[in-house]
């Protein structure tokens, strides 16, 4: 069964749309409520306007009559005063004559609703003694009991209204009105009385009011003076309190309104008639007003429901034709981006959305193919990675053995030459061959180190050792001396131009030697016969840098080849014309990396068949001699009463390292594997252990861990504190970490200098 769209929110787009939909429906509902209220209020205002107009018409009609009669009464009062005798008694015949003339004038006024006996005279005794139509009344009627006469005898020339009554002479229902007449001296003479004919007034009002739904009543005090036939007296009683609150400051107001769902109320308005105590109450038929408003409400409510229904239909149409397809396509695109091809949205019916659907389908197919291809590439890459790891592991193991042999050859050669002077070497062909062996083995050592460094760079394990002050001039002199035989073979002269008193360079000394060995060796190898290589060094004081330059007059490189070399792609340079050059070609990439790690800068200038100039810039840091430097200056040959156990499986390395330790003044014993070392440690006392890594029976890592555990020992108690220094061929981060994790304290490479070895041993022994 299909879910309603407002019950299913598959995406943020749909959620936003549903939120807008709900807000819109609420807004439409609120606007509809306001619209209904406004419509009903307008209808009410129309009905109230009819009531106001009707009450105004009635008020104008009655007040016009009253104003006209008031004028006539004032005029008649003036004439009566003039005819009054000295005894302050009005003459009845003269008064009757005056009133008779006024009756004629009034009867000629068609719009005036006065009874046929419009004017009557009531003397000070309360007798009605004269009338404008009858003349002098022979048998006066005493009307002193009428309420308005009490007031007129006290207040001069003011209209006073009485309660509706049956006229004494006319026999018709009237509203009596009187005006007291006083002499010039202020004596009460009598009252001019006249009556408003209620029947005639009602007739005139009904002619004015054309709406049969309206009814009216004229109210005097709290009683109805007269009313239309359809007037509802029950409603009047309910509204009596509200009517009594009307005053001159608020001469008209609505006192009742029709409710939407109630029939017991309707519209009602009350108005005061000016210059009189009378009030006009106008009512609207309750049934009619209820039907009018309720029918209007139903009509407008139908319109509102129609609008809301149209909005819902419109929103559903927008949802199913736009929002839902777009939401589905959005989800489709998101799934494709996450390489999830399980979801397929409904196919749009047409238009741009169908085009988008087809496009996304095409993207899906392409992405799917790419994913499959990537999977294949990942498998291939994994296989290559495993092959590379195997290569790296093989290289590391092979280089370990190679460096052991090279270290042995180089070390033994130097031991043989160690006590011989230069003249003795030059006089002996055998010693010269030993010197050549030493030089060649050192050159081979550099090659192996470059090979290992390249492997470390590829694996991201390349790092520098602790920086120390370095004398650049002595390093350059040493390298030139080591390459003397190489320069002789290439018929090349090596010159040095080194500034005196160069400041010390703070660097990794072994790596700095490696940089300069590579550059100087390459310069000699690539030089043409009978040319020179110049190595210069000076201090750039303004920049705070040491500047080293290696200049040769060799085959040179083109500008394009220099760019390739600086990008670390030296192997891509065509070397077909360099068959006679003995170079392994991996040194420059290491040089660039080492210079960068020292935060230095390298520049290369070269031209084909003219030569190459390599410039190095290193920042100089002023460094005072610290404890480490001072220790290097101390005499290492002093005799020490301390014993060192050397654990090493290579005989040549045992001889070389043992001699170095004895030269440093330490008692030395050795073990050829870890198992033998554990046994010797339990039998003899030692202050320090020098431990190789790869050995038969038990390697150095296992032996170090066993020492720290101490479970194999019966007599040896210092197994937790005895210093263990790793002395290994490899110095990559992985090897160092493995050594330290096994329980060793420090790591040194076998090719390290005698000074550094002594320094580390002294540190460990305190």
Question: What's the layout of helices and strands?
Answer:
Layout: H1 12-83, H2 92-107, E1 120-123, E2 127-131, E3 135-142, H3 147-152, E4 159-161, E5 165-166, E6 173-182, E7 188-197, H4 198-208, E8 214-220, E9 223-227, H5 233-244, E10 252-256, E11 268-272, E12 278-284, H6 286-337, H7 351-418, H8 422-427, H9 429-459, E13 468-470, H10 472-482, H11 484-489, E14 492-498, E15 505-507, H12 509-525, E16 531-540, E17 545-552, H13 559-566, H14 587-597, E18 601-607, E19 611-619, H15 627-633, E20 643-647, H16 651-663, E21 667-671, H17 674-683, E22 688-691, H18 700-709, E23 724-728, H19 733-742, E24 746-749, H20 754-765
Parallel strand pairs: 14-16, 20-21, 20-22, 22-23, 23-24
Antiparallel strand pairs: 1-2, 1-7, 2-3, 4-6, 5-6, 6-7, 8-9, 8-12, 10-11, 11-12, 13-15, 16-17, 17-19, 18-19
Can you give a write-up of this model?
Helix 6 packs parallel to helix 7, helix 7 crosses helix 16 (651-663) and helix 17 runs parallel beside helix 18 (700-709). This protein has 766 residues and is of the alpha+beta class. It starts with 11 loop residues before the first helix and ends with a helix. The protein folds into four domains: 44-286, PAS domain (Beta-Lactamase, 2-Layer Sandwich), CATH 3.30.450; 347-462; 463-574 and 582-623, Heat Shock Protein 90 (2-Layer Sandwich), CATH 3.30.565; 630-765, Rossmann fold (3-Layer(aba) Sandwich). It contains 20 helices and 24 strands. The strands form five sheets. Strands 1, 2, 3, 4, 5, 6 and 7 form a seven-stranded antiparallel sheet that branches.
């Amino acid at each position: 069964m299909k879910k309603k769209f407002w019950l299913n929110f598959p995406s943020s787009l749909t959620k936003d749309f549903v939120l807008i939909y709900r807000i819109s429906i609420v807004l439409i509902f609120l606007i509809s409520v306001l619209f209904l209220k406004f419509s009903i209020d307008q209808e009410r205002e129309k009905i109230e306007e009819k009531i106001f107009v009707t009450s105004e018409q009635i008020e104008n009609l009655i007040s016009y009559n009253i104003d006209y009669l008031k004028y006539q009464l004032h005029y008649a009062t003036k004439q009566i005063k003039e005819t009054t005798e000295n005894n302050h008694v009005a003459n009845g015949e003269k008064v009757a004559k005056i009133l008779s003339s006024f009756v004629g004038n009034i009867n000629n006024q068609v719009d005036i609703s006065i009874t046929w006996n419009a004017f009557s005279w009531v003397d000070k005794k309360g007798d009605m003694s004269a009338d404008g139509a009858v003349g002098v009344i022979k048998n006066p009627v005493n009307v002193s009991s009428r309420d308005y006469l009490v007031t007129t005898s006290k207040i001069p020339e003011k209209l006073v209204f009485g309660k509706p009554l049956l006229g004494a002479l006319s026999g018709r229902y009237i509203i009596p009105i009187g005006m007291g007449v006083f002499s010039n001296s202020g004596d009460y003479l009598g009252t001019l009385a006249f009556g408003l004919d209620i029947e005639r007034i009602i007739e005139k009002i009904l002619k004015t009011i054309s709406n049969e739904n309206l009814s009216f009543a004229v109210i005097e005090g709290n009683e109805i003076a007269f009313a239309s036939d359809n007037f509802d007296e029950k409603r009047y009683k309910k509204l009596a309190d509200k009517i009594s609150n009307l005053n001159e400051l608020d001469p008209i107001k609505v006192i009742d309104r029709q409710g939407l769902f109630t029939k017991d109320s309707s519209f009602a308005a009350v108005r005061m008639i000016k210059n009189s105590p009378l009030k006009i109450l106008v009512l609207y038929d309750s049934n009619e007003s209820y039907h009018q408003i309720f029918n209007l409400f139903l009509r407008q409510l139908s319109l509102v429901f129609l609008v809301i229904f149209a909005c819902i239909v419109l929103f559903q149409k927008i949802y199913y034709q736009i929002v839902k397809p777009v939401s589905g396509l959005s989800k489709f695109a998101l799934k494709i981006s996450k390489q999830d091809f399980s979801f397929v949205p409904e196919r749009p019916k047409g238009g741009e959305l169908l085009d988008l659907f087809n496009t996304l389908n095409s993207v899906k197919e392409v992405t799917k193919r790419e994913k499959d291809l990537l999977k294949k590439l990942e498998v291939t890459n994994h296989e290559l990675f495993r092959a590379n790891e195997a290569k790296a592991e093989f290289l590391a193991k092979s280089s370990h053995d190679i460096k052991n042999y090279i270290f042995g050859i180089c070390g033994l050669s130097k031991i043989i030459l160690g006590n011989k002077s230069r003249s003795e070497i030059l006089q002996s062909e055998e010693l010269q061959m030993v010197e050549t062996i030493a030089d060649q083995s050192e050159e081979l050592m550099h090659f192996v180190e470059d090979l290992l460094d390249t492997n470390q760079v590829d694996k991201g394990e390349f790092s520098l050792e602790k920086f120390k002050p370095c004398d650049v001039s002595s390093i350059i002199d040493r390298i030139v001396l080591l390459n003397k035989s190489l320069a002789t073979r290439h018929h090349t002269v090596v010159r040095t131009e080194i500034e005196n008193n160069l400041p010390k360079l703070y660097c990794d000394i072994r790596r700095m030697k490696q940089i300069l060995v590579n550059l100087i060796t390459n310069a000699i190898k690539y030089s043409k016969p009978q040319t020179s290589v110049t190595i210069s060094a000076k201090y750039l004081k303004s920049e705070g840098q040491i500047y080293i330059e290696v200049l040769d007059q060799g085959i040179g490189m083109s500008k394009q080849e220099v760019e390739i070399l600086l990008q670390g792609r030296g192997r891509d340079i065509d070397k077909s014309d360099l068959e006679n050059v003995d170079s392994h070609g991996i040194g420059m990439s290491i040089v660039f990396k080492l210079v960068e790690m020292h935060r230095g800068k390298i520049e290369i200038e070269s031209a084909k068949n003219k030569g190459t100039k390599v410039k190095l810039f290193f920042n100089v840091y002023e460094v005072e001699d610290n404890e480490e430097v001072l220790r290097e200056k101390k005499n290492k040959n002093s005799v020490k009463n301390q014993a060192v156990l050397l654990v090493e499986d290579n005989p040549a390395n045992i001889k070389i390292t043992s001699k170095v330790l004895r030269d440093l003044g330490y008692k030395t014993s050795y073990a050829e594997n870890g198992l033998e070392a554990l046994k010797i440690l339990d039998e003899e006392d030692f202050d320090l252990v020098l431990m190789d890594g790869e050995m038969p029976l038990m390697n150095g890592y296992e032996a170090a861990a066993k020492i720290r555990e101490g479970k194999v020992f019966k007599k040896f108690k210092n197994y937790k504190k005895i210093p263990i220094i790793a002395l290994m061929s490899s110095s990559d981060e992985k090897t160092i970490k493995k050594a330290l994790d096994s329980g060793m304290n420090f790591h040194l490479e076998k090719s390290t200098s005698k000074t550094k070895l002594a320094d580390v041993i002294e540190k460990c022994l305190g």
